[in-house]
Design brief:
By secondary structure, the protein is mainly alpha-helical. It has one domain (5-70). It contains three helices and two strands. The protein has a two-stranded antiparallel ribbon. The chain is elongated and about 45 Å long.
């Protein structure tokens, strides 16, 4: 299935919104979270998500959540 450029961007924006909400649910904020514009300009596949930068507290929280998910108690 080939998506139009508009559909590709809409899908990418929705995914970024879901990720932002999920991160916020565990106290995480990635200030630079967004759609990678270069990959969005292409015509193949879906655009990439730019995770960007975060502070050390957010990185530690994310690592803890991932570790907990990978190794449940």
């Amino acid at each position: 299935m080939v998506l139009s450029p508009q559909a590709r961007m809409q899908t990418a924006d929705e995914v970024v919104g879901q990720l932002r909400e999920a991160l916020g649910g565990v106290g995480g904020v990635f200030p630079s979270l967004g759609v990678d514009i270069v990959s969005a300009a292409g015509t193949y596949g879906l655009p990439l998500v730019e995770l960007g930068r975060c502070n050390l507290d957010t990185a530690l929280r994310l690592a803890a959540v991932l570790h907990e998910k990978a190794h449940p108690a």
